[in-house]
Design a protein that fits this description.
alpha/beta; Cobalt-precorrin-4 Transmethylase, domain 1; Methyltransferase, Cobalt-precorrin-4 Transmethylase, Domain 2; Rossmann fold; 5-stranded parallel beta sheet; 5-stranded mixed beta sheet; 18 helices; 22 strands; about 20% strand; elongated
Amino acid sequence: MKKSTVGSVYLVGAGPGDPELMTLKGRALLEKADCVVYDALVNPAILSWVSDACKQIYVGKRADNHAMPQEKINELLVRSASEYRHVVRLKGGDPYIFGRGAEEAAALHAAGVPFEVVPGISSAIAGPAYAGIPVTHRAHCTQFTVFTGHEDPTKEKSTLDIKGIAAANGTKVMLMGMSRLRHTLESLIAAGQKADEPAAAIQWAATARQRSVRATVATLADAVEAAGLGAPAVVVIGDVVSCAPELDWYSRMPLFGKRVVVTRTREQASDLSTGLKALGADVMELPTIRIVPPTDRKDFAAAVVDCPRYDWLVFSSPNGVRKFFEAFYAVYEDIREIGGARIAAVGPGTAAELKKHGLMVDIMPQKAVAEELVAEFDRKGDEFGGVANVTMLWVHSEKGRDVVYKELMKRQAIVDECIAYNTVPETQDPTGAKARLESEGADVITFTSSSTVRNFMAMGIPLPQGCKVASIGPVTTATLREFGIEPHIVCETHNIPALTEAIATYFSK
């Protein structure tokens, strides 16, 4: 094999499923990677951290369905190091715990390729913990054993010490053994394992798809079949399983087991996704829109440069605020150079974005709609000397409604437009959410703007049977009604935290 003198390969553990359980170092490496080679059990949401320019190569192996044999994966890693500077080999759990990471590291060493290993949290401990089962407990045990139920099928003789495992004290954790679960449990009992000892199986551990059953060693296989559990799963044997009814914190979360679709842009999805995940939801990020620069960038730049001469700056959305100040700080060094303009914002979300720049709003309606902003000017305008002959710079999207412009002009304000961005349909689906939605369905689909509604409908994906629709506010609701959809969930305050709370409240009832 050709020796690499350019790139390095990082064997990174992706953890057990929950992206937030991945290490900070692992995420930092992903963000700068120019090539990622990943496995089947890696949560697709983790791949959203890589850049658009990063090459993504799937080499997943699930039971008898291997996208690429291990020898070919080894060769791919060596070859990729000669083509890319930063190659991340992303493996579920920990690279060295039944992950064949040691074989890959050995192949890289033999080829002279620099490599590092970034450990990950293993499902052997995280899976039981997310099901309320501590693998050690002073009242029950002070040791635990981890073994695999899936050995190399080419070996002539098993190296699994069934007698030793059966005789071992403490907790026993089996990974990758669901296809041979009944055989393994029967072999353990025959080797002396207590048949009535508590046992559990946890499928899709540490994800919102998690399901588990508890039984005994003798009855677990029947319980698994009755519940329809399959791979990937962790099996736990030991007295610690009896702790689960008291310590099972995860399944008690308000949105546990609920599949929620987020249709915001990739850049914006995190706030809503984080709030929903914190309540236990299984979040699918399916961006329907993408924020791009306005068609006329020169006009936008000129408007930003001229902003200090206006009496009022009027912002219609958080996106407008973000794009405006990206351009502002490219020209000015100090926020004070914005001048003495008063600030108006359409709703709390826009006001919160302005506050990040140290700017408080002078006028803001409680309902985040353009009509309410104009009404607020009518109610409070006299406090600021009225709007007639007052200069205003209206910052908005290219496809935004023109209510603010028309109504303020009617009131004799002098309004100039500052078109800060445009929204276009999202054409990429980096996490495979579209296919997953079509095959698995969802409990809730969230819409945070009219454009998310229109572009979702343009995808031609029928709403899953029984799926609820959540709308952030009246304008979005009106657009949904254009398509004959009446939302089940509408938040009273039109921002992301309120939408999250409204979804949780709906299901709590």
